[in-house]
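[job 0412] stage=complex_fold ligand=uracil status=START
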Amino acid sequence: MSEFTAYSIIAAKKNKKELSYKEIKWFVDSAVSGKVHKYQLSALLMAIYLNGMSTEETAHLTRVMLDSGEKLKFRGHHYVDKHSTGGIGDKASFILGPIAAACGVKVPMIAGRGLGHTGGTIDKIESVKGFKTGIDSKKFKELLKKNDFVLSAQTKKITPADGLIYSIRDVTATIESIPLITASIMSKKLAEGANGIVMDIKTGSGSFMKTSKRATELAKSILGTAKQFNKGATALLTDMSQPLGNKVGNSLEIIESLDTLKGNGPEDLTKLSVELAAHMVLLAKKAKNIKEARTKCIEVIENQKAYDLFRKVVASQGGKLSSLDNLEVAKTKTCVLARTSGYIKSFKNDVIGLKLVDLGGGRKVAGEKIDHAVGFDFHKKIGDQVKKGEKILTIFHHKKQNTLARKIKKEFQDDIILISKTKTNKPKLIQKVMSL
Ligand code: URA
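[job 0412] stage=complex_fold status=DONE, emitting structure tokens
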């Protein structure tokens, strides 16, 4: 008989008690093996969400989640990955991964699926027919050796605890928790064997951390955990008050990533991808300073090395290049026009993510199939001038969704996008760089 019960551990957290390593280990292992029910796991996650965790508890949870599966180990500074806390239109991984790899960094990337209103790297890349995301450890190592960049989902063998907890958090409103985000991200990053981690901590309406203060707290928690596990880490606080780039939606985001790798991407997406990749290059000690790292990153876009590397990765992971070149985008378009003249003031960026979910581009229930073809193409950014009747964005949907698209169009005009009569400022894309 175990000394613990799910009930006693849930009750302890509900009553704001600090959980021990043994209690956390017993609960998480039992949830993964199915001995603890999903409804009990949901209750514990809600108690953690409401009452938080100490630095020690967060480290215990990270350790337990990491130990729930296999661990890869690589030797050397040059194994560096990046992870984002999630946002709208955040497709930077598809760009910075190949850039960093083309600069000599080994990028072992384990990424996630959509979570809450935010899209997921794994869902997006699955727009490419045949692309395999459930890579086992042996294949992962082979691919990393061959391509320098490998992109995989967390699997049943690697951090299975994160797979389970992530899917439950997604449907139980328990995402925006600093300890849960820290343990989720760090368990994956530690399992994949990266020795350096660049964190893109999003702040603003489309992120889980709405204020700069909360984002800074999350950055400190992640950097502190990285230190405890002896990993190099840099965190960038970046703007998520509007979509990153112009396109939002699975296939559309891969299309925009390819454009960016070819040097024709939107300014914000290009800038952020280069900056994150440059910090990876620096952590990997492949450049003497950030300036030199940036120059190297820009070079591999200009000479198409990063673009070619991405195509090689896609083909090696089973993706059909014919599908990559002809990604399916929903054929029916509904345009959202400005009702008044003025300047774009703000976006309810998280609501944009939820509208994508309404169209089928994200999940309402764990494990649900998603529609890769739907999405939005924004033609305006915060601070841009608009004239009455001018197109602000295009909705890509299926014909049978005409009524839904009209409803979403009205919601965009009513309150998702605000237009002001007076000139508005563009938000600062990269707000802070933090390191250990
Ligand atoms: N990304 C993750 O992997 N986990 C989270 O909890 C949030 C973003």
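The chain has a mean pLDDT of 96.
[job 0412] exit 0
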